[in-house]
Amino acid sequence: MKKLLLPLAIVALVAYACQQGPVRYTQNSPEIDTIKKLISNYNAKNFDASMFADTSKTYYNTKDNPMSAEEAMTYHKENDNNYASRGFLSDHQEYEMVLTDDGESWVNCWLDWKGTLKANGKEVVIPIHLTYQFVDGKIVREYGYWDPTEIVLTLQQLEAEAVKTEQEETE
């Protein structure tokens, strides 16, 4: 019996060591599908917050002052006033889901966004990184990072020109 116990223990140890844990990285998951739907909704100007948890927090180009999902949708609607057209381009989209050492599920995506300013027809293309944390199939955190400099400077220039024109007309 003792002779049989050692080989059984070795087989059990090998079987335990060979068991694969959860997938830590993938490019196909229900969470990625959720983000693709969210991007599609954004492009269609369908501002649906149902993919977000009630307590979700959204951070755009900041780590402070989070927005709720509804506030983020309002942010997008208000920004739409500046554009004749806008949306994420379908080329070169990259998505990945990562399960962290702490057991957190995150979806990262790298996209190109294109907008045409309503005021002057200027087209702007901006690379954007978005990352989303999921809990129980819902987004609980969203972080977005991009360089808005070209748009901000153009809008400031247009505003300055409008003010100058208005001042000249009242003189």
Automatic annotation (TrEMBL):
Keywords noted in UniProt: Signal
Secretion signal span: 1-17
Domain of life (superkingdom): Bacteria
Stored InterPro entries: NTF2-like_dom_sf
Keyword Signal attributed: yes
Keyword Signal applies: yes
PROSITE patterns, A to Z: PROKAR_LIPOPROTEIN
Transmembrane segments: none
Coiled coil: none
Protein name listed in UniProt: Nuclear transport factor 2 family protein
